[in-house]
């Protein structure tokens, strides 16, 4: 039933009941009828009141019968409010989880965009700093807490200068690019305070493009120890006269040097290259010109003691083997 028809129906029903009540009240008044020992006049008033109540009751009954929302509102409102409150309580953690997931999605979108930029940069070779690349390596000795803090600050400043020079080569205004977590620096300070000699290696956390405003870095601390001693044989390779080929000598020497670098890094060296004594290659060439049909062993010898952060200086030693 539409709203207007329902209103018209209620008006007609109310008018009909009120008319019948008025007629009934008039007849009872004229007949001087008495109810509950009341005077006829008061009996007529009572009938009129009952008629009005009947109008209200019938109107309400019809509205409840026809309108479902009104029925629910009158009889189930309390239960609905209770369920609504319970639903709100359930929604609170769900809303928090939704917010957390939305933030996580945004972070992943940022990471994805960064990854896309990195892929483009990788293809075009625009990276100026690689993930895990050392920005500075420095030795530090245990002493007072204030001195350790001062030394670490100088190391970070040097790393900043190096980073700024690479990432913003055209910028004359120096600015702090490195972002290092404070608790990482505090952990390093506490480690050094325990005593001993240490090496701090400031490393880039991720690939960096030229022109970026921030470079995330991580300070790595390593015990400063002797990697190789003076005169120590690091690696060697044998040359046999039966399969000797002058064209392969250069490749074998490069392989020997690469093996030596891998060995010192395995021992804990932070150097990325080894330095070969300049006249070692000439001595090898002179030896081969005179002894190309001879068995010999080519050794890589350390020319000095080298610690964790120090360069490794080597020479080639020819160990002559008689046939």
Describe this protein's structure.
The protein has eight helices and twelve strands. It is of the alpha+beta class and 323 residues long. It folds into four domains: 3-75, no CATH class; 78-125; 129-224; 227-321, no CATH class. A four-stranded mixed beta sheet has the order 2-4-6-3. Strands 8-10-12-9 form a four-stranded mixed beta sheet. The chain has a two-stranded antiparallel ribbon with strand order 1-5.
Question: What's the short story on this structure?
Answer:
The protein has 323 residues and is α+β, with helices and mostly antiparallel strands. It has helices spanning 3-30, 40-66, 68-75, 77-124, 145-167, 182-193, 246-266, 280-290; strands at 127-129, 134-141, 178-179, 197-204, 208-209, 215-223, 226-228, 233-239, 274-276, 295-302, 306-307, 312-321.
Q: Specify the structural class.
A: alpha+beta
The largest sheet, given as strand count, sense and whether it forms a barrel, is: 4 strands, mixed
Q: Average the pLDDT over all residues and give the rounded result.
A: 78
Radius of gyration: 48 Å
Query: What overall form do the CA principal axes indicate?
Result: rod-shaped
What quaternary form is this?
single chain
Helix content range of the residues, please? 55-70%
Q: In what range is the share of β-strand residues?
A: 15-25%
- Stretches with pLDDT under 50, minimum 5 residues: none
Distance between the termini: 119 Å
What pattern of helices and strands is seen along the backbone?
Answer: HHHHEEHEHEEEEEHEHEEE
Number of domains: 4
Number of strands: 12
Given the structure, what is the number of helices?
A: 8
Strand order of the largest sheet: 2-4-6-3
């Amino acid at each position: 039933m539409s709203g207007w028809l329902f209103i018209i129906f209620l008006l007609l029903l109310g008018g009909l009941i009120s008319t019948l009540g008025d007629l009934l009240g008039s007849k009872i008044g004229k007949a001087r009828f008495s109810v509950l020992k009341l005077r006829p006049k008061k009996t007529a008033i009572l009938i009129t009141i009952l008629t009005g109540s009947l109008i209200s009751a019938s109107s309400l009954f019809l509205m409840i019968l026809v309108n479902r929302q009104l029925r629910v509102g009158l009889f189930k409102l309390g239960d609905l409010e209770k369920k609504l409150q319970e639903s709100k309580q359930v929604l609170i953690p769900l809303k928090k989880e939704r917010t957390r997931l939305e933030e996580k999605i945004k972070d992943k979108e940022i990471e994805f965009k960064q990854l896309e930029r990195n892929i483009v940069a990788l293809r075009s070779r625009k990276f100026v700093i690689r993930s895990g690349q050392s920005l500075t390596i420095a030795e530090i000795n245990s002493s007072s807490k204030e001195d350790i803090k001062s030394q670490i600050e100088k190391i970070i400043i040097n790393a900043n200068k190096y980073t700024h020079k690479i990432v913003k080569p055209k910028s004359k205004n120096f600015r702090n690019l490195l972002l290092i977590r404070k608790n990482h620096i505090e952990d390093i300070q506490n480690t050094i305070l325990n005593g001993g000699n240490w090496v701090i290696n400031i490393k880039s956390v991720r690939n960096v493009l030229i022109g970026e405003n921030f470079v995330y870095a991580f300070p790595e601390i390593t015990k400063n120890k002797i990697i190789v001693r003076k005169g120590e044989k690091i690696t060697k390779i044998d040359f046999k006269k039966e399969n000797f080929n002058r064209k392969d000598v250069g490749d074998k020497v490069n392989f020997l040097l690469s093996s030596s670098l891998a060995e010192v890094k395995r021992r804990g060296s932070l150097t990325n290259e080894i330095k070969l004594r300049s006249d070692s290659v000439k001595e090898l060439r002179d030896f081969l010109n005179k002894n190309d049909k001879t068995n010999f062993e080519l050794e890589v010898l350390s020319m000095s003691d080298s610690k964790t952060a120090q360069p490794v200086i080597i020479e080639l030693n020819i160990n002559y083997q008689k046939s």
